[in-house]
Amino acid sequence: xxxxxxxPIDTYPESTVFLxxxxxxxxxxxFKAMRKxxxxxxxxxILATLAIVDGDGLVRPGEVGLGNEAFRRxxxxxxxxxxxxxxxxxxxxxxxxxxxxxxxxxDSEISAIIRDIATHRYSPxxxxxxxxxxxxxxSTPETLAMTRAMVDVGSRLSWDSPLVVDKHCIGGVxxxxxxxIVVPIVAAHGLIIPKTSSRAITSPSGTADTMEVLxxxxxxxxxxxQIVARDHAVLAWGGKMNxxxxxxxxxxxxxxxxxxxxxxxxxxxxxxxAAAGSTHLVLDIxxxxxxxxxxxxxxxxxxxxxxxxxxxxxxxTEVVFTDGSEPVGRGIGPVLEARDVMAVLRNEADxxxxxxxxxxxxxxxxxxxxxxxxxxxxxxxxxxxxxxxxALAAMERLIAxxxxxxxxxxxxxxxxxxxxxxxxxVASIDCHRIARIARLAGAPMDKGAGIDLxxxxxxxxxxxxxxxxxxxxxxxxxxxxxxxALADSGYLVQP
Amino acid sequence: xxxxxxxPIDTYPESTVFLxxxxxxxxxxxFKAMRKxxxxxxxxxILATLAIVDGDGLVRPGEVGLGNEAFRRxxxxxxxxxxxxxxxxxxxxxxxxxxxxxxxxxDSEISAIIRDIATHRYSPxxxxxxxxxxxxxxSTPETLAMTRAMVDVGSRLSWDSPLVVDKHCIGGVxxxxxxxIVVPIVAAHGLIIPKTSSRAITSPSGTADTMEVLxxxxxxxxxxxQIVARDHAVLAWGGKMNxxxxxxxxxxxxxxxxxxxxxxxxxxxxxxxAAAGSTHLVLDIxxxxxxxxxxxxxxxxxxxxxxxxxxxxxxxTEVVFTDGSEPVGRGIGPVLEARDVMAVLRNEADxxxxxxxxxxxxxxxxxxxxxxxxxxxxxxxxxxxxxxxxALAAMERLIAxxxxxxxxxxxxxxxxxxxxxxxxxVASIDCHRIARIARLAGAPMDKGAGIDLxxxxxxxxxxxxxxxxxxxxxxxxxxxxxxxALADSGYLVQP
Lengths: 495, 495
Description:
With 495 residues, chain A is of the alpha/beta class. Chain A is 42% helix and 20% strand. Chains A, B: Its EC number is 2.4.2.4.
């Protein structure tokens, strides 16, 4: 049996096995057909892509080289022996092919597919094929089966409470950082709200990216449990908790292919919520011509799909349609959004109204889940907790508990102002365009990069007056964003 | 600018670039987002997957390592300088996304997608997404546009003749090696028939695999032209001629995903024929319960699609439906099929009738394209050329011209006979099952591996009498095939 050797090569997200071309026990023809191999050792097995090495520089006959990812996943030490075999073709791929042919799949078939995806048995190509086939047609029962299967293959958080609330927005509206206001309000009220969120996938910032400007978000499940036990809440990145790991794998393929169907959205969101132990959920669906959901009709279809799956998963869900016609607040990008959030929590006079109003409305709906609260009094209670400073105090406790951020992030020093081409009224702001410009400036990786909106829809501006300011930490980032803003600022100003 | 260094690692079919983790000019965050890079140098540019190397063992700061495939494709020498940039996202991917959303694409959109696929700008995942979206719905004009685009991105052969004939079978029936009989008959008649064929994709042997038992098939376009100029014909592997290179890339993804739609089949076959300069084509569609086309209705739909696209490509096409209910001839696998073909050409008394009859019928239809031949006399002419030995002589000339095979291949020495479980009549033979067993035995890589059918449908057999003999060159191959044959031989014997 060959012995393993760690080859310090990073081929993330793929695992790679390096075998010498000579004397490896296989014929060249067998090798060509293999491509993917299974490495079985003392601690279990992994699947990996095969690379063949000429010469003795990297691996010698009798050795198996494991790249960083493969070495880490196998969890053995150098010199230990392993067995290399051709990777078995997952049996569930037959059902993927049937799905491509337009058939519907049973619960157990979908479950087997999701299990194989979560355990890295599918190649990105095979995952892509499955997702595109699902994008073509996916029934409501199939969506439910997928959601359940995604929960089953991951870890679950559990809480000593019959009422565990959450609030989620489907995204697509830049600056819409209401969670960071809703969570402290609800925590101040006393409900349990363990909010795990993602980093930005295609947007200029996710809740985890913005919260990270203020505090550590990189918490494991044990630390999350400790913080929630004391403070009722958390605002953590979900990536370390193994909640719905199949979702993470699916997203890694959905992102480059930009697959963003309602069915995948529902399965992704509700599997994460169920795994996080949520019992009650307020779900925000913004509607607008440049948002993810573009019409009331689409929103109703999406709402029904959420309601169906949530009901069968045992999650009480209240769907709220909100205005997605323009960005929320002023800042877009982690630092600028964090500034807006803290301004609202501090009740500053110039805090953005739209962000505050929306957050209080959503917090009120979450508080309305509390059986102790008189019907319809959630909104007033939320407003009171914000105005009194109780929400701010709850946020400060959360920041301290998670660990205050030690790096001071500031808005990027390289700046450019997009200006009004004519005098007139701001008729519309393109969410999609603004998000792309903010991403080009460097958000969310460059925390200080983004856009500061100086005027919103309805404002009257003079010709040449600044509409928004782009911030970037690098000259290149600013140049890219500036170029795009000059081609089309995303603002429509009507004389 | 960094200098290139050849890293002797084979990551076929992907190209890989190895960069040192330290001092490579990029931040870790940028790297994570890059994954695919463009390497631009003196001779052009390539796209490649990025691998990051720790330590100085493989690449040092200031160097760019290129794996075997990347080094070969870039075509520069070690030490020359290159520029590394993030690989641009092909603009045509936007249209792939629209196709996933169910839209139809225009000719120019499909053309751009095929161009990007042929120039390796798509990842396998992206190609898979495109193919699965097309499998969901693809219009006839889209199929035509794809066929045209596939021809446009490759080389074309041209011939000094207004009549260049070809014969093609869509496959799916083991042992159906009629091309190797049709081509010498038609060549003996005097028509130009430059037959390029593929190696087996999912079957136990392709025409190129079987012809290779007798002669060299690995010819470039110049050699093919020489041979055709003298002998009117060739029986070559098409892989070296750059005919429809997009098809080769698409097939590399269709195969693992087992995508085999009529639309892809038509585009694949007709793009290769148009690129090979064919003006007239006889197309064989076998129909049978275990063949690719399972009913007359399906066959008619496929025929119409072929006719529509072929007409617009300017290829006169005669579609022939044949019996695909059982394998043709006796041998399955390169050596055993070559034996059957030569037995027919040599007019041996025990040559398989069904193979001969089908080949003569198809050759007759090809000869009927010749305006010099009296209407309906093609069949008689084909039979005469076979019986007289003219076809055999033509085949011998072809073998000599292409270069007779120097290795003597023989049927695999490891053998197992599948036997009748009861006395009775052979009611049916499962083409699909027989093909899988032959592949497990080692065909087509192991040329002597395969199956020799001792009885065909309608034969009466005793209990325990041998139905077929499996041949394999390795004990493992025989064991795999034997196990599968014992589980289900593919023969239905009815008492």
